[in-house]
Amino acid sequence: MPQSWKTVRLFISSTFRDMHAERDHLVRFVFPELKERCRKIHVHLIDVDLRWGVTEKDAQEGKALEICLDEIDTCRPYFLGLLGHRYGHVPPGHQHSITAQEIYHGVLHNDLPKQVVDLSKIIEGKLEGRQLSDEQRDTLMRCYVWDAGKRKYMLKEGITAEESAIIQSAFQQYAAYQKDRSFFFFRKESLTATLAGTNRNDFFEQNPEDRVKLEALKQEIKDACLPWFEYDDIEAFGQLILETLWKRIETEIGQEILKEKGWLEEELEFHELFIAGITRRFVGRRDLLDRMHGFLEHDAKNPILVITGEPGCGKSALMARFSEEAKHRHPDWLVIPHFVGASPDSTIIRQVLRRVCMHIYNACDFDKQMQERISRITGNDEQAQKQRQEIQKEYTIPDDYKELAEKFPEFLRKASKSHRVLIILDAANQLDKSNDAHAMRWLPQPMPENVSFVISTPAGEVYDALMSQRTKPEVESMHGLEESEIKEFVNDYLREISKEFPNQEVADAFFGKVKNGNPLYIIVALEELRVFGKFDEVFSEIQKLPEDVPSLFEQMLERIERDYQPYPGLVRDCVSYIACGRYGMASEELQTLLKTHAPRLDPAIEPVKLPDMLWARLHRTFGAYLINRAGVTDFFHTQLKEAVGRRYLSKETERNRVHKTIADYFETRWREPYTRALEELPFQLFRGKMWLDLYEVLTSLSFMELKIKHVSVQKLGMQKERYYEGIYKLQDDFRVILENFKLSKMSNNVKDQLKSLLECLIYQSQNVASNPDSFFSQMKWEARRHKRSWELFKPIFEQQLKGIDCRNYWIDPYIICDASRVSRSFQLGTTSAICFDVLINERIAALIDKKGYVVFLNVDTGQVIFKLFLEAAYACCFAKSKRPCLIVGGESGILYFIDLGAEKVIAQQQVHNGNIFGLATNSNGRFIATCGGNDRRLHIINLVDLSEYSIRENYFSFNYCVFSPAKDLLAVASASSDIFLHSPPDEYSWYAIYSHDSQAMVCAFSPSGSFLASGSKEGELVLWDAKRQFVVWRKRTTNSSLIGLVFLDDHRLISGNADGSVDEYDVHSGKYIRNLSCLPGEVYKIVIDRIKNKIFTIGGGLWAIDLELCNEGIDEHLGVILSIATLTKESVICAGENPGLAIINVQTDTEPSVRIMNSSSRISHVSLSSDKKWLITGSATARGESLAGRVELRDLDTNIVKVLDAGNPSISTSAAVWDSCFIHEGKVLVVAFCSETYKDRMIDKLVRWDLEKGKEKSISYDSTKGPRSLTSIKDLGVIVTSHSDGTVRVYSDSDLAFIRAHKLHEGCVWCCVNAPEFGGLITGGIDGYLKVSNINNGKIIKILQKEEFSINTCILSPDRNMLVSGASNGVIRFWRNDYPLLLNIFYAGTFVNSLAFSPEGDLLYFAGGRGLLGVIQFKQNISWGRLHYKL
Q1: DSSP three-state, residue 685
Q2: What single DSSP character describes residue 499?
């Protein structure tokens, strides 16, 4: 399930003048890398440096300190303090400097936080289990008030000294929580002196008293046991901060994922916070509330009540108070309030209906109702199965709007049988107009009995639609507050901010101005007077207040413009961007868009965003009128949005300018993929009337696929994960342009094309939602079904395919060619099998596929014996009984017993609520154990006396269970990372043994029962002594999950992995022995066939692996293969982590032959000259030896070896040879030497050998910056090298003179290829990016690939038309220069280190982990095959 996004705000505190070097290094190098790492775990990192872009003079003049302290409270608990040898500016009247006050306020807690984000967690004791006393808890709840606008808890003014002391004691515990998230870095004096040079006054504190204070501050930090570090190098400082922060964030987010909230929980929380905020200042309206309750309580025939009134009159606050009272007065009612605008999804009618249905489902326990009805159906014939499916369908909440609109009244009708149902819908006029929501046809007609709706809306389209309902609703009109209510409202506000009117004349003037009683007008007027500040002029200011809300908002905007006069246009652009956003704009987006207004302290440096200090001030200015929904800022009041439109966006040209600016920003980000860009870009292009751009985006296959995959994948509780949300939002994009097509002035043919795409999206939505990776092929297939659709659809494809027949490129990349001979495996049965078992003596296998069919077949011939239909299942096993019987654990939690002789289900039993993941029987067949389900239970059935019992785990589910063959001991793998042991029938014999650092996925006993092995989600393998229960050994085996285990005997263990590999290990030592096979799917069960010496497993199908053929394989010589090169079409030379070379001769009709070339050194690199005359081998320091890395040239005609061991101290090195290339028609060889790890601390070099003249030239690097790959660009006469620090460097190929360098990646750049056919230089790095760049200016032209794993290698085909990349997760990707999208994907089964094409280009060899060499054959029409050879 995709993880929801979280935000971490990091406050950076430092002095002004002396910390420019550190802050610049953080902004340019550290934070970009840290943000990229965070993005991979769904975290938005926001670094808040309020010094950036602000001079010290600015800080001394005004509210800088106040803003800083407020921002610290917002960022809690993350705090980064940088201290050198200056104490910093001490404001007049203060004892400490600004920096010191930030530290005291943010970390040491010498004062009280004025605002807190995590207060609810502190009160509930959820911050690392630190519980408060009742007194502390009550005081915090009393003294901190929730502010809905700021979405924080604010400290009330006027608290007592006693309350202050109690709060101080509570926050001392909070400080303990924050300690692990506050970090301090002290610069050493030697580095300060170097940076200062002759300008010591700016770097060393000149005031003796302040020097003492600075040292005291540092000592306080140390005494508080806060994490602190010293540094004397800027780059080391940056690396230290990067790793320290990343470790803390990664650890915390890993813990948060376990507490991940579902979509419904998040929606409920949004609405609860909205209600709490909007009722904070609610007064009066008692008569109206009583009439609303009376309407419901007197069995009125009319089920709908409409609350109407002018904007700002308080309808939302009334509805919120009414919902609170209704729940209190009628606890047995089902009250479901929905406030449009409270959450990002609250405006979409489809999401509104789905939320209400899910609320009803949970509140009425529909799951229990459904299970009870299903359990009453007997038999297992096709009719009985259909009845069960119909019942499940009846309780299933659909995703499609039309189906939801039909299901909605059914759910209301079911709920009304046991509850009185009240739906409260506020601001129905603000619903998105998609699906014709404003017509209100989604309201059930007629309304089910016992169901009522209360709906608020002003006069307009929605009100008219409600009045035209078959049964006309009751209407209550809202007016302004009464005079007494106005005074109460105003006095409450003044009391809250500790203010009062200066005299009665001013009070009378104000109350006269607000006598119409509009609450919104009153609150905005009070806010304007509060910020005015000149109390002697308050009376005249009141007289200037306009008469209505819209005019008042416009006056407010004019006033704010004056406040920001030094930044002309800043206010206009800020509010215009928010108003023009589809759902508002995120802070990060606004700061970037507003960078043109940033002060330019250095004319040569272009700002990257609006300074944090300036943004914080601007956000505070509008804070009372903004709402934050999941990180997106929008106007709380529609009247303010309308005022912005009238003042700044009344002209079409201005509106188009704003929309174009936003569109240009999102255009640069949607390929990341950035979810907000995928949502906003079509809307911005439409609003900006950029019709051609909109057409190109909506017909971009890449955009469509990314939007489906990444937009709002929700957690649906009882529903399975689907990608419907992205599909529906994409359909809405198409509908918008089609409904407004006349405005575009594009041809009707374009309109027909868009219609065709929309129809295909609709028809294929279910298939694509289930498998978004199939998007392109599903769309193409749907279009081909209808000749007219394909005629319209085809040009769109051809435009992007540029004439290539797309049919040839969308095929299954996991087809195994001639697998029975080459990979020592053969496939049986269906490729969609999800579980299986084998009855060895009877030679029968049972498979269950994704559709729910159980297929029985002969394992020797593959012939199907019989099949029957059940349901999808994830666990099955053959019972140990006289008559062959298969036990199946269904996804609904039902246990089925199938008699193979009768070929039917003979019994069934409901044992779990949801999927059964583990199923096992003991050695004599007496006990059956099952585990899994939503109930997190282990269930034991005694088949002798038919007794049964369950063991429940409160927090984690169970993944797998297995009995020991020696005795009735059951091992259970838990998601908690533990292995539990249990001895039935004693249900109290239940204890855990610590096992893994991540989820335990599988476990297995040895045949004698002496050993127990277990595997984890992170690929860790652990062997236990089962009798004494201690760890024999543990090891990390793979980067993927270890999900299958079986013992061949007490000496050999076989594992199956999620990456498709099947491996063998020595039981006693844990040593890796060999790879048995590499399959195209997850290997999550293995069965031993001791009769024919085979193993059976699931891996994209049922596979039989012949162990005798495995024994005939080639011994492992090289270990991990580091580098390969092709001598001929069928001859490959390989170098690996062990000394020596292997030359493999690959024939099409025989097993490969291998010739081993021994070597005393480890060969790290092999390559061939273009004329195939020279073989270049580069060595690395062998383990345990001191041999220096060197280069050998072998003449393949004469076999004469020339050693290019320079012997020259200037170029000798012990670093490994990493890459090489010939230039100048083979007369010159350039070689890159690089340390294999940063810890080696060797001197890395780039060496140029003139082979004719015998001259050398070299360039040396620190081992953190060494060259990893190189390529020549003959036309430019340069060598391009990629480096460990993320840069590429350009040198003259004649003398290695340095020309330029470009930072292209974060972290090591493993490969670079000059590919003008693809637009420039191709680079791949550890950051997972494969980029095309302009080598002259370093500009990124496009991003071909973004992996979660490192891109290790890339290569061009001999004809230079195909580009291939290999990654550390084993994925090989293919591109063509005449095809704009990814051509195909191939999975190697292990990480890929090296790629090599055959000279003809029809074979691609790949090599890497597990000593595996593979070859892909390019056949006619680009169909794929795969051959594997084990070295």
Answers
A1: helix
A2: -
User: Tokens standing for 1398?
Assistant: 């055959």
The length of the chain in residues reads 1431
Average pLDDT of 684-700?
A: 87
- Judge whether 883 and 903 are in contact, CB under 8 Å: no
Cα separation, 492 vs 490, whole angstroms: 5
Which among 23, 77, 26 has a CA at the least distance from the CA of 52?
A: 23
pLDDT tens-digit series, residues 131-182: 778 788 888 878 887 765 555 677 887 788 888 888 877 776 655 556 678 8
Token pair, residue 674, equals 């950035």
Q: Are 35 and 104 in contact (CB under 8 A)?
A: no
How far is residue 756's CA from residue 473's CA, in Å, rounded to a whole number?
Answer: 41
Predicted confidence (pLDDT) at residue 699 exceeds the cutoff of 70: yes
Is-contact 419 385, C-beta < 8 A?
no
Q: CB within 8 A of 516, min separation 6: which ones?
A: 480
**For the residues of 1291-1305, what is the DSSP string, one character each?**
EETTT--EEEEEE-S
Residue carrying structure tokens 């074979």: 1403
Which 8-state DSSP code applies to residue 901?
Answer: T
Residue with tokens 């001999």: 1358
C-alpha 1177: how far from chain center: 42
Residue that is written with structure tokens 């191939």 in the block: 1386
User: What is the C-alpha separation between 94 and 585, in angstroms, rounded?
Assistant: 38
CB 675 within 8 A of CB 710: yes
3-state secondary structure of 1352: strand
* Rounded Cα–Cα distance for residues 371 and 620 (Å): 53
Peptide bond into 77 cis (omega under 30): yes
Provide mean pLDDT across the span 31-37.
Answer: 77
Rounded CA separation 867/1072 (Å)? 39
* Count of CB atoms situated within 10 Å of the CB of 253: 16
| pLDDT tens for each residue of 944-993 | 777 888 887 656 788 899 999 887 899 999 888 888 888 888 877 887 77
Ranked by mean pLDDT, the top range of 54-68, 254-268, 1165-1179 is 1165-1179
Exposed e or buried b for every residue in 666-688, given b needs 16+ CB within 10 A? bbebbbebbbbbbbbbbbbbbbb
Question: For residue 130, what are the CA distances in angstroms to 107, 117, 122, 126, 155?
Answer: 17, 17, 8, 7, 21
In angstroms and rounded to an integer, the radius of gyration of the C-alpha atoms of the chain is 35
What's the CA gap between 619 and 611, in Å, rounded?
12
Give dist(CA 28, CA 17) in Å, integer.
18
Distances (CA, A) of 1131 to 497, 1154, 1237, 1356, 1398: 83, 10, 31, 19, 9
As a whole number, the mean pLDDT across the chain is: 79
* 411, pLDDT greater than 90: yes
Structure-block tokens of residue 1029: 């229960």
How does strand 1392-1397 pair with strand 1403-1408? antiparallel
Are the C-beta atoms of residues 334 and 363 closer than 8 Å to each other?
yes
Task: Measure the CA–CA gap between 1415 and 1274, rounded to whole angstroms.
Answer: 30
- pTM score of the predicted model: 0.52
pLDDT of 592-623, one tens digit each?
Answer: 999 989 887 667 677 888 888 788 778 878 87
SS3 172: helix
Element spanning 81, H or E:
strand 79-83
The two most distant CA atoms of the chain are separated, in Å, by 110
For strands 1042-1047 and 1153-1157, give the pairing: unpaired
Q: Which of 530, 524, 523, 532 is nearest to 489 (CA)?
A: 523
Please say if the pLDDT value at position 1211 is more than 90.
no
% of the chain at pLDDT higher than 70: 80
Helix pair angle (349-363, 401-416), 10° resolution: 30
Q: Mean pLDDT, to the nearest integer, of 305-313?
A: 92
Joined together, the tokens standing for residue 1211 give 């170029």
Show the tokens assigned to 167.
């709060």
